[in-house]
Amino acid sequence: MTENLFYFLTSLTLLSALMVVISKNPVHSVLFLIITFFTISGHYILLNAQFLAAVNIIVYAGAIMVLFLFVIMFLNMGKNAENAVKTSVISKIAGTLAGGLLFVVMIAALKDAAIVGYNPETYNSQVGMVENLGKVLFTQYLLPFELASVLFLVAMVGAVMLGKKETGEQHF
Amino acid sequence: MESVDLLYKAIYILAIFGITLLIATYSTYFERKIAAFIQDRVGPNRAGPAGLLQPLADAGKLFFKEDFIPNKASKALFILGPGIAMLVATMSSAVVPFGDKLIIGGHEINLIAIDVNIGVLYVFGVVSLGVYGLMVGGWASNNKFSLLGAIRAASQNISYELAMGLSLIAVLMLSGTLSLREIAEQQSGFNWNIWYQPLGFIIFLVCAFAECNRTPFDLPESEAELIGGYHTEYGSMKLGMYLFAEYINIFVASAVMATLYFGAYNFPFMEDLRAAISDPVLANNVVTIVGLVAMFTKIFLFIFFFMWVRWTLPRFRYDQLMKLGWQILIPLAILNIMLTGGGILLKEYLF
Amino acid sequence: MEPLSNRSKKVQKREMTFTERAYLPAIAQGLGITLKHFFKKKATVQYPEQTRERSDVWRGLHVLKRDENGAERCTACGLCAVACPAEAITMTAGERKAGEEHLYREEKYAVTYEVNMLRCIFCGLCEEACPKAAIFLQDDKLAPARYERDEFIYGKDRLVEPLKTTETK
Questions:
Q1: Which of A42, C24, C102, C167 has the most CB atoms less than 10 A away?
Q2: How many CB atoms lie within 10 A of CB B68?
């Protein structure tokens, strides 16, 4: 049952991720990206990491993707998406080459990598729960956690600076 | 899980789903009645006794109207929009504890559809998805007013989600859990969170109004400047689905507020009632059923409050809305978090 | 500019106090007002079952009266048309033939008598001008809405009081 669910979710993830790249309309791309985030959240739930699943949906699907969609709606790119992308033959060849090379590098890198599994006897299934995650974050990884918060603060100050009104500027 | 338990759970989920839809249906009726009463009128009273069949008549009308799709609309998304709105709205009542546990034939049945330990986050996540229905529908209509409504809905929801989350954090600091059932259990008797979190409750209430797109924050569908906002191009039952989703959202928001701040199924003198009945199983069941009634009373009061406010306050201007969200509610919510943290520390220090 | 009256009030814009800026007390006040209206007596008249009570001096649709023998009282003198401020009344007079005494009271009668209900302002001056007590404005009927303009010109067929034939039974 779980295995079937995993394969279903995985194929859905790959399919919708592919559609993000393929679909010509940017709004459709964003919507497929949202489906991708959902299926990834599904994977988290299969791994018994409920907190990560919920946070993934809240942060990515609920906030960031809304902003993406928001901006794309403002730009109104859907109208002339068909003739907007015009590429020459050379750039197509270059793109194919670069993509192929990346693929080769990935295969070379992953060929010898061993998959580190977990021992089912000693594995603690509660590791993804909120309490355990919180404990790990606030003890073992306290410094990176606090540093990340400083990073967010810097980003926030930057956003405030950008959004600040110049003297004499009037919007309404 | 035993098959009997599974059966009870299935029945419970179906019952909650049905009750949600029923309450949403009759919310339309009560909205009209309350609007009428506040405006010194009597409201719908022709369909059935006291107009009680009016929602059925409305639904019948919507079902039989022409199902219209604009020529230049993005057809798949145009149909998907109301579907998403409806789906997301009905999803969120799954983690709300409507009652404690019933004991039937030795089986304990928790009156909660899924008891996850991240209930609050689940509600929060689902609520944040609600805006997609509006955005997709508004964009797919290929209409300027729809698009403007959709954009307004998106920016409004994101802005108020922040303050909502921050006001929630104070409650979570007090309770120390993310599970809605445990939060409900902690508020037994009259020990409700509202006594500790009055400011947080007001912030949450305002944000709930904004998230449900209700007056005074119904700018995405403000008929004065945007015709109908995101549902300008919609008609027939697709429009009905949008309106329905709005009422379901009100119901869910009321249920969540009742759970987080007003003690869910707890009511005063609950333990006295439990002690007064000698048979423990019977006592538990009686208390649970009275608690269920208490919960729905609280929900209905909140729904009434939603409508009462709608027919009292005029709509905000858009810059006022944004100013309220970013410059007033978020600092207040952060202040509330600090006060709560200080209070918790003070309590630990003193006792 | 000189003020027309001394009733104009100088409006002063002052800083709002904290309770005013907090907005919540004002909301509570507004909610109180709407709740008061919630329990007030409703102004609605349930129309088909109930009708709104009219004043005793209500002036509604015109009627051309008959006398006690069922003959038309109107003698087409034209005083009502002269009195009418809206010029809604027109008529043509005719002479009563022999054998029509049971139909018309006087020797002269109105062959046509038209009231244009779109012009009429229901002032009741025709009623006051009439020397024969022939035209009255009823207190229980009104000129209903219609689809065509010419349907508003009421002829004798619609103005004259019907004969009381039921009394013979």
A1: A42
A2: 12
